[in-house]
Amino acid sequence: MKSLIVKILLTLNTLIIIAMLMTGFAYVLDPRTWSYLAIAGYAFPFFSLANVAFTVVWAVVRKRCLLLPFVGFVACYVPMNKFFPLNLGKDAPEGSLKVMTFNTEQLGAKWEYTNDENVQVRRNMLKYIADCDCDVACLQEVCVNKWVTMDIDSIIRPAMPYIEAKEWCGNKMMILSKHPITKCERIAYESEGNFTYAFYLDVEGRELIVVNNHLETNHFSVEEKANIGRMVKGGMEREEMHEKSRFVLRKLVDAATIRAPQADAVATFISMHAGRRMIVCGDFNDIPLSYANSTIAGNLTDCYTATANGPGFTYNKNGMLVRIDNIMCSPEFTPYACHVDKTCTDSDHYPMISWIKE
Q1: Where are the beta strands (DSSP E) in the chain?
Q2: How many Å apart are CA 253 and CA 284, to the nearest integer?
Q3: Whether the model pTM is above 0.85
């Protein structure tokens, strides 16, 4: 009887490892061709947890079988490292550039620019950014109007005097810098409200290209996000859960399909400027195990994967805990101490901060 149980467990563990491989490396698949298979990376953490559970099971049932889940983790080292990196911490050396990316959710405006509560949230966020004392801060989803401009001039500009705001189809992004911005250009791709800009900075006489991204969103409405939160917390009946799950998956596929050519355009720009000092950051609206992320990353160094620990969730609302914001740098740089700062809670994203040094 025990022999039969062991065989069943071995079979299940093997199937789990196969599922880890299929979901962990799904990022190589183009969603324009592979549809649902290309977004399978969302399931990788669950299969990984199942493999962890099997290590406990084998420790109790048959210790020599512990090799099997271990082999699974070794085979999936690359996706494991993308999703859950583990690194020894190193302090940033003197002279490093401090970089931030932050989706500000309209700086807390909620479209009511003079509401007392929103004004306080906006000023708190701007003060947080100023206090971080970064060399470069890339912001996405920034409302820009006369009230915001006055607050930026009084709170941000003394520390970061070089500021450039760009708009595309109603969406706005901004770069804040201690160093002069010499020019900027939009990286062209089709989108109804998302875009990418390359900003050229003069850092002590040397050019630094900073690419700020806000790739295609998943287009979930407020109600749909709330429904996802209910799904995550188990607050739905089985039939409704099935229906909503299919709807969410369809939306994820549709958005990933739109993001694919956007990622291709950004990757082409990076390739055309190979050999030049570059930082690529922003809200990718996709997980580390995705076509968009891996396509843009290319030969860049993912600062979080290279220096941080744990999953590092940057989106934090409605139970959708995912890392969709990134800081990457060209091979000329070495990143240090990249982390997600969860002390700033005024947006639906946490800011990500990293140091880089040539």
Answers
A1: 97-103, 136-140, 162-168, 171-177, 181-186, 195-203, 206-214, 278-283, 301-302, 325-329, 334-340, 352-357
A2: 15
A3: yes
For the chain, what is the total number of helices (H) and then of strands (E)? 11, 12
What is the C-alpha end-to-end distance of the chain, expressed in Å? 62
Q: Identify whether the C-beta of residue 180 lies closer than 8 Å to the C-beta of residue 162.
A: yes
**Token pair listed for 117:** 């509560």
- Residues 6+ away with beta carbon under 8 Å from 157: 163
What is residue 353's three-state secondary structure?
A: strand
Sign of CA dihedral 110, 112, 115, 119: positive
How far is the C-alpha of 88 from the C-alpha of 229, rounded, in Å? Answer: 34
Which amino acid makes up residue 31?
Answer: P
Tens place of pLDDT for every residue, the chain, 358 residues?
678 889 999 999 999 999 999 999 999 999 999 999 999 999 999 999 999 999 999 999 999 999 999 999 999 999 999 999 999 988 999 999 999 999 999 987 655 555 777 888 899 999 999 999 999 999 999 988 888 899 999 999 999 999 999 988 888 999 999 999 999 999 999 998 899 999 999 999 999 999 999 999 998 887 878 777 777 776 677 777 788 788 889 999 999 999 999 999 999 999 999 999 999 999 999 999 999 999 999 999 999 999 999 999 999 887 788 999 999 999 999 999 999 999 999 999 999 999 999 9
